[in-house]
Design goal:
single chain; 419 residues; mainly alpha; Serine Threonine Protein Phosphatase 5, Tetratricopeptide repeat
Length: 419
């Protein structure tokens, strides 16, 4: 019996507890199932031990053949197993895992007061539970954004769904957003359509985009234009920009530069950077409006100040050649550098040229090489040709320095993009 005690005690006590501790660190399997498996494991070991002692008592017990001793030992081992599984620390672990991984996915909270304790307004929770659609939508938004409560996708979807099922358009749009973000594009389209048909501009614009890209629905530019127009007429800046693009490209509607400019202008006046850039482009090329470089610079600048790298590049080029503004190499370098730091290949190539020629900056073959190298890495043919010429004029040390600087730039900007 002593031998059995030495062998079985660790099995009953150590292994179940070890599994519990291990399972708490592995969330790919639901913790509740792991605890159940651990319990069954302990029970199986108990049965094996009981059978062995019943049929082969002499193999384990040289001190006593009494059945009472064996049964008493089994009870003792069983209690040890129960202690290992249901000890206070294990119960706490089970409760923590339940709260973390199970409760958030329950369809109904067990106690609205629990949510209130988490930073939610009890009155808001009560209204939502009573079926108030605005409260349900607000509660969903709080869970989606993590405002005043821990972010919880399942809870957000649950509350949005409750309001959406009652026909609340804003919740239908928000539910579509959540589903689209989770990859359920067909379901997203379903809810956006419901909201769009009730006149929700955000849903109309989103539905238009889905038709434009053929995402969740067959690609259909005519349908895209239809929904873009509905949202644009309600003042949605993104939809106004998108409708302008459709007119400028002739997709889903007859090409009409005048209409394109009209819609770009509406969105640009609301501060939409992509529309500001496109409006500047229309003035620069004289499409739908008279050619006007000063007006082009005006809109390029607005978009560039919003961080649009295409506008930053175009504005830098306008300063470099002195069109629409007095020629100013320093300003040209300023805007080209901003675009180049966004990874704009044309800006990187032209900035390399500014360093090579010493325009607006101190002349530097090393920095010219660096920027041309970065542009070449993106397949920029002009930069490749310039680089092949420049390396013939540089020392090995200069080339190595330029390559080092290019690598450091790439590492810095690739890590910032990942963040």
């Amino acid at each position: 019996m002593l031998l059995f005690t030495v062998v079985a005690l660790p099995l009953f006590y150590g292994i179940p507890k070890s599994i519990i501790e291990y399972s708490r660190r592995r969330i790919s399997i639901k913790p509740v199932f792991l605890y159940l498996a651990t319990f069954l494991f302990g029970y199986a070991v108990f049965l094996i031990a009981f059978i062995l002692l019943s049929y082969f008592p002499s193999a384990f017990d040289t001190v006593s053949q009494g059945a009472g001793f064996n049964i008493g030992s089994m009870i003792g081992f069983w209690l040890l197993a129960l202690r290992a599984i249901f000890s206070r620390s294990a119960r706490q672990a089970m409760r923590a895992d339940y709260d973390a991984f199970v409760r958030p996915h329950l369809r109904h909270p067990s106690n609205p007061g629990d949510q209130a304790d988490a930073g939610l307004d009890p009155e808001l929770v009560t209204k939502a539970a009573a079926g108030n659609v605005e409260a349900q939508d607000e509660l969903g938004s709080m869970y989606a954004s993590g405002e005043g409560v821990a972010s919880d996708y399942a809870e957000a979807v649950k509350w949005f769904h409750k309001a959406a099922e009652q026909g609340y358009a804003r919740a239908q749009f928000n539910l579509g957003l959540m589903l689209h973000g989770a990859g359920s594009v067909v379901q997203a389209v379903k809810w956006w359509r419901k909201a769009a048909e009730q006149g929700n501009a955000n849903a109309q614009g989103s539905l238009g985009l889905m038709y434009y890209n053929g995402n969740g629905v067959p690609q259909n530019y005519v349908e895209a234009v239809k929904w873009y127009r509905k949202a644009a007429e309600q003042g949605d800046a993104e939809a106004q920009y998108s409708l302008g693009v459709m007119y400028a490209s002739g997709k889903g509607v007859a090409e009409d530069d005048t209409e394109a400019v009209r819609w770009f202008h509406k969105a640009a006046e609301q501060g939409y950077a992509r529309a500001q850039f496109n409006l500047g482009l229309m003035y620069r090329k004289g499409r739908g409006v008279g050619e006007d470089d000063a007006e082009a610079v005006k809109w390029y600048r607005k978009a560039a100040e919003e961080g649009d790298e295409k506008a930053q590049f175009e504005l830098g080029m306008m300063y470099g050649i002195g069109e629409g503004v007095p020629q100013d190499y320093a300003e040209a370098v300023k805007w080209l550098r901003l675009a180049a730091d966004h990874g704009h290949a044309d800006a990187q190539s032209n900035l390399g040229g500014m360093y090579y020629n010493g325009h607006g900056v101190d002349q530097s073959d090393v920095l010219a090489h660096m920027w041309w190298k970065l542009a070449e890495a993106q397949g920029h043919e002009k930069a490749r040709k310039s680089l092949s010429f420049l390396v013939k004029l540089m020392t090995k040390e200069q080339i190595a320095e330029a390559q080092r600087m290019a690598r450091e730039w790439q590492e810095k900007h690739s890590s910032s993009t990942a963040d």
